[in-house]
Amino acid sequence: MELLLFRTRWGAEGTLTEFAGEAVSAGFDGIECPVPVTAGDQRELEEVLDRSGMAWIAEIATGGGYVPRRELGLDDHLADLSAKLDACAALGPVRVNCIGGLDAWSDAEMLRFFEAGMERAEKLGLDLCFETHRSRCLFNPWRCEMVVRELPEIALTADLSHWCVVAERLMDTEMPTLRAIAANVRHVHARVGYDQGPQVPHPAAPEYADALASHQRCWEVFWEAQRLAGAARTTMTPEFGPDGYLHEWPFTREPVADLWEINRWIAGAERHHF
């Protein structure tokens, strides 16, 4: 099985061309970024992918951005998802990562969202994965396990850093649940969380060695499940980011570490770990 590493657009500065060029130079296999909405943005992404030779993972957030608007309902999220799946189909993403739904929905609403999304993606020939993300349907590990029982064909993106915050503990304490969903995980967001936050200041810092090792033990469970299933490749996106995730010094608001350096570091560490 081959590991493909993708650079996240989240928090990266510069043009799309500069972003992709830096990813190539750093040894990444592809980029992960939102689905372009306008025709001009679609052309730009297509040209960048052609020139760089990069693969692309499309990112979809339903219902008003990374944090969903509370007043939007199931039909709004489904319409948003369908439109964005249609927009990315012609660009041929390796897979589509969906940050979808709402944590406050009933189980019936949540399952309907997943079923409809899976059906639409299948018609378009897209490999759709739903991300484990705070404020969304899969905001905790036990709800995710229930979804997998109800929808055994669902594909997942595992971002365990969110669950560390929700559960207030590292996720290698929940190995039976992780093993129950492992066969459904197709993609990993490699951000290291800890029991009080979704992102450690730097994953190389010795004071967070236990958090890094915990995430790595969990990622190994997912990789092994894919290997046993005969997968030819697996994908991972180092996803340390800004927006309150990146720690800052008080008063000056200067970042405590360089975001691009952090993501390059975790990419190298996980290529070696894999």
3D architecture notes:
This protein is of the alpha/beta class and 274 residues long. Helices cover 43% and strands 16% of the residues. The protein has an eight-stranded parallel beta barrel, surrounded by five helices.
As a percent range, the share of strand residues is 15-25%
Distance between the termini: 10 Å
Largest sheet: 8 strands, parallel, barrel
Structural class per helix/strand content?
Answer: alpha/beta
Number of helices: 9
Low-pLDDT parts are none
**Strand arrangement, major sheet:** 1-2-3-4-5-6-7-8
Q: In total, how many beta strands?
A: 8
Mean pLDDT: 97
Evaluate the radius of gyration.
18 Å
From the spread of the alpha carbons, the general shape counts as globular
Please estimate the helix content. 40-55%
What is the H-and-E element order?
Answer: EHEHEHEHEHEHHEHEH
Spell out the blueprint of helices and strands.
Layout: E1 2-8, H1 16-25, E2 30-34, H2 39-52, E3 55-61, H3 74-89, E4 95-99, H4 107-124, E5 128-131, H5 141-150, E6 156-158, H6 160-167, H7 175-181, E7 185-190, H8 209-228, E8 233-238, H9 259-273
Helix pairs in contact: 1-2, 3-4, 5-7, 7-8
In short:
The protein has 274 residues and is an alpha/beta fold.
